[in-house]
Amino acid sequence: MSLYDTVRKGAATAYKVVDSMLLDAVYTSTGTAGYDPATGDVTNVGDQTFNIRVLREEYSDQQINGQNIRATDKRFSWSDVMYPGFEPKTDDYLVLTATGERWNVVRKMVDPVNAAWIVQARK
User: What structural domains does the chain harbor?
Assistant: First the structure.
Protein backbone atom coordinates (compact mmCIF):
# COMPACT_ATOMS: atom_id res chain seq x y z
CA MET A 1 0.00 0.00 0.00
CA SER A 2 1.39 3.40 -0.97
CA LEU A 3 1.71 6.32 1.43
CA TYR A 4 -1.08 8.07 -0.50
CA ASP A 5 -3.43 5.11 0.04
CA THR A 6 -2.44 4.88 3.71
CA VAL A 7 -3.26 8.54 4.32
CA ARG A 8 -6.62 8.23 2.50
CA LYS A 9 -7.50 5.16 4.57
CA GLY A 10 -6.49 7.05 7.73
CA ALA A 11 -8.85 9.89 6.81
CA ALA A 12 -11.73 7.45 6.37
CA THR A 13 -10.91 5.94 9.77
CA ALA A 14 -10.91 9.41 11.36
CA TYR A 15 -14.44 10.03 10.09
CA LYS A 16 -15.53 6.68 11.56
CA VAL A 17 -14.00 7.64 14.92
CA VAL A 18 -16.03 10.86 15.07
CA ASP A 19 -19.18 9.08 13.88
CA SER A 20 -21.25 10.48 16.76
CA MET A 21 -20.51 14.00 15.47
CA LEU A 22 -21.58 13.23 11.90
CA LEU A 23 -24.97 14.30 10.61
CA ASP A 24 -27.15 12.39 8.17
CA ALA A 25 -27.90 14.34 5.01
CA VAL A 26 -29.36 13.89 1.57
CA TYR A 27 -27.00 15.38 -0.97
CA THR A 28 -28.46 16.40 -4.34
CA SER A 29 -26.11 16.69 -7.27
CA THR A 30 -27.81 18.88 -9.84
CA GLY A 31 -28.10 17.71 -13.41
CA THR A 32 -25.37 18.25 -15.95
CA ALA A 33 -25.00 18.01 -19.68
CA GLY A 34 -22.39 15.80 -21.26
CA TYR A 35 -20.93 16.00 -24.75
CA ASP A 36 -19.64 13.05 -26.76
CA PRO A 37 -17.16 14.44 -29.32
CA ALA A 38 -17.18 11.18 -31.29
CA THR A 39 -20.92 11.31 -31.99
CA GLY A 40 -21.66 14.98 -31.37
CA ASP A 41 -24.44 13.95 -29.00
CA VAL A 42 -25.33 15.99 -25.95
CA THR A 43 -26.80 14.02 -23.08
CA ASN A 44 -28.51 15.43 -20.03
CA VAL A 45 -28.13 13.76 -16.68
CA GLY A 46 -30.87 14.59 -14.19
CA ASP A 47 -30.45 15.33 -10.50
CA GLN A 48 -28.97 12.52 -8.43
CA THR A 49 -29.34 12.12 -4.67
CA PHE A 50 -26.99 10.44 -2.23
CA ASN A 51 -27.40 9.63 1.45
CA ILE A 52 -24.23 10.79 3.15
CA ARG A 53 -22.86 11.50 6.64
CA VAL A 54 -21.22 14.88 7.03
CA LEU A 55 -19.23 16.78 9.60
CA ARG A 56 -20.58 20.32 10.05
CA GLU A 57 -18.20 23.02 11.22
CA GLU A 58 -18.39 26.75 11.89
CA TYR A 59 -16.04 29.21 10.24
CA SER A 60 -13.80 31.12 12.64
CA ASP A 61 -14.16 34.88 13.08
CA GLN A 62 -10.84 35.30 11.27
CA GLN A 63 -12.16 33.45 8.22
CA ILE A 64 -15.41 35.40 7.94
CA ASN A 65 -15.08 38.46 5.71
CA GLY A 66 -18.74 39.11 4.88
CA GLN A 67 -18.28 38.52 1.15
CA ASN A 68 -16.59 35.21 0.35
CA ILE A 69 -17.43 33.71 3.72
CA ARG A 70 -20.46 35.01 5.55
CA ALA A 71 -21.16 34.63 9.26
CA THR A 72 -24.03 32.22 8.56
CA ASP A 73 -22.05 29.96 6.20
CA LYS A 74 -21.13 26.46 7.34
CA ARG A 75 -18.41 24.06 6.29
CA PHE A 76 -19.43 20.47 5.60
CA SER A 77 -16.97 17.66 4.96
CA TRP A 78 -17.01 13.94 4.32
CA SER A 79 -14.55 11.21 3.49
CA ASP A 80 -13.96 10.71 -0.21
CA VAL A 81 -12.98 7.12 0.57
CA MET A 82 -16.45 6.40 1.97
CA TYR A 83 -18.14 7.84 -1.15
CA PRO A 84 -15.77 7.08 -4.04
CA GLY A 85 -16.38 8.74 -7.38
CA PHE A 86 -18.70 11.35 -5.87
CA GLU A 87 -17.58 14.92 -6.57
CA PRO A 88 -19.59 17.93 -5.37
CA LYS A 89 -20.41 20.90 -7.61
CA THR A 90 -21.24 24.50 -6.77
CA ASP A 91 -24.87 24.14 -7.90
CA ASP A 92 -25.50 21.20 -5.58
CA TYR A 93 -27.20 21.26 -2.19
CA LEU A 94 -27.65 19.10 0.87
CA VAL A 95 -30.54 18.74 3.26
CA LEU A 96 -29.87 17.74 6.85
CA THR A 97 -32.13 14.82 7.67
CA ALA A 98 -32.77 15.74 11.33
CA THR A 99 -33.74 19.38 10.73
CA GLY A 100 -34.73 19.60 7.07
CA GLU A 101 -32.34 22.54 6.63
CA ARG A 102 -31.22 23.05 3.04
CA TRP A 103 -27.64 24.20 2.48
CA ASN A 104 -26.54 25.32 -1.00
CA VAL A 105 -22.96 24.59 -2.03
CA VAL A 106 -21.16 27.82 -2.92
CA ARG A 107 -17.59 26.49 -2.99
CA LYS A 108 -15.92 23.08 -3.01
CA MET A 109 -12.43 22.00 -2.02
CA VAL A 110 -10.61 18.75 -1.58
CA ASP A 111 -7.97 18.18 1.05
CA PRO A 112 -4.33 17.85 -0.11
CA VAL A 113 -4.39 14.04 -0.32
CA ASN A 114 -7.84 13.79 -1.90
CA ALA A 115 -9.19 12.02 1.17
CA ALA A 116 -12.05 14.37 2.04
CA TRP A 117 -14.36 16.80 0.29
CA ILE A 118 -15.01 20.13 1.98
CA VAL A 119 -17.84 22.38 0.86
CA GLN A 120 -18.78 25.87 1.91
CA ALA A 121 -22.55 26.10 2.08
CA ARG A 122 -25.18 28.71 2.86
CA LYS A 123 -28.93 28.83 3.29
Answer: 3-122 (2.40.10.270)
DSSP state of 59: P
Residue of 100, 98, 103, 54 whose CA lies nearest to 77: 54
Query: Residue 77's pLDDT band (boundaries 50, 70, 90)?
Result: very high
Number of other CB atoms surrounding residue 68 within 10 Å: 11
The letter for the amino acid at 67 is Q
Under 8 Å between Cβ of 59 and 76:
no
Report which of 84, 75, 86, 83 is spatially closest to residue 118, judged by C-alpha positions. Answer: 75
Helix, coil or strand: residue 11: helix
Alpha-carbon torsion (8, 11, 17, 23), positive or negative:
negative
**Distance from C-alpha of 37 to C-alpha of 34, rounded to nearest angstrom:** 10
